[in-house]
Structures are given as C-alpha cells and as structure tokens.
Amino acid sequence: MGLFGRKNDAAPAATGAVNPDLAALTGDYAIDPAHTTIGFVARHAMVTNVKGSFTQSSGTLHLDGADPSKSTASIDVTMTSIDTGSADRDTHLKSSDFFKTDEFPTMTFRSTSAESLGGDDYRMTGDLTILGTTKPLTIDLEFNGAATDPFGNERVGFEGKSEILRSEWGLTWNAALETGGVLVSDKIKLTFDISAIKNAA
Q: Lipid/polyisoprenoid-binding YceI-like domain: from which residue to which, for each copy (predicted)?
C-alpha cells in the first residue's frame, strides 16, 4: 500500500520520495482483524455525529518499499458486524432500508493505484463495492510504523480517512425533520486503523 515513510527529526521528504532503507518492508501482509478498525461517522438529525465501526474484516496487502505505486490492497468487510452502540440502530442498518445484509453480506475494496505523497503520507485509489454497486474511492493514508511483536510477527500499521456520499452506492433511505433537513446525512466520513502481519517467507 506504499506505507513506507518513517517519522524522524529529518527534513520532510520531497513529494513522492521513498526511503530506500525501508525496502525490508516489501512483501505480502495479512490484515489482523483483532487490531483493525474500519469506522464511519454520519451526521444525525443535523446536530450530532453518530460513530460506528465494522468489527469483522479480512484482507491482504502487498507493500513495495522501492516503488509504492506497485503496492496493492484487497479488503473484505462483513456487513453484519456493524456496531454503532445501539442494537436497534444496528438492526435497522442491516435491514432493507440500508445495507440489506441478507442479500449483500460483504463490502469490498480493491485497489487500482497507489502513490507516495512524501514523508509518512500516501494515497491509495480503488474500487469500493456496496450493495453490488462499485465506484472509485481514494483514501489518504499515514504510515504509523513497523515493529516485531512479542510473538515474532512483523507488523505494519497505518491510519486512513476518506469521505463518500452514501447515495452514490444506493443508500438513500432518510426521514424528513419537522424543522427542516433530514435525519441522516448523505456525506459519510470513513476511517481506517489497520494493523497487518507480514506473511512468512
């Protein structure tokens, strides 16, 4: 996914610059669902934010330390794992008004391009599929570091963010407010906090 910057006190790298010393991160990784959060924020009743996440996901990354443009990502999200802190709201979101999880149990992201923006910043573009509709999504990413955990796993971590208009994926249910406006915003903020483990050689 091109996540190959490292925080230090040196001057920021020029846009697109890649540290050749980080070539050791090149390889294939599996997303660790126990330490990964894919979240979202929606505006509710025009006045507050409702936050939620999907607690079950899987996927793979291919990271290329020398050429981030060759990095790729494939992520599957289990839609029934949605959690907003309210069982009634979660049941509604799984229903035919929203995600239709009986018919469309999985949301997917498949990368199509990646680029280094310099330093710890990267950008990945790909195809996001919800309710059988596929549209492009661009995610801005920040590399959080690489480490070997106590069990010998080589890990990388990163945070990402993006925004979508849910109506573009067929998520159009809403309710009008007496004071004007609607119950649920069309704009949804997406957040990614991902830990991935390098595959054994």
A: 28-197
- Whole-number pLDDT of residue 20: 55
Low-confidence ranges of the chain (pLDDT < 50): 1-15
**Tell me, what amino acid is at 32?**
D
How many C-beta atoms lie closer than 10 Å to residue 12's C-beta? 11
For 64-102, b/e burial (b = at least 16 CB within 10 A) is bbeebeebbbebbbbbebbbbeeeeebeebbeeebbbbe
Q: Are 84 and 98 in contact (CB under 8 A)?
A: no
Q: What is the pLDDT of residue 177?
A: 85
- Please report the domains of the chain, with CATH numbers, ordered by start residue: 20-198 (2.40.128.110)
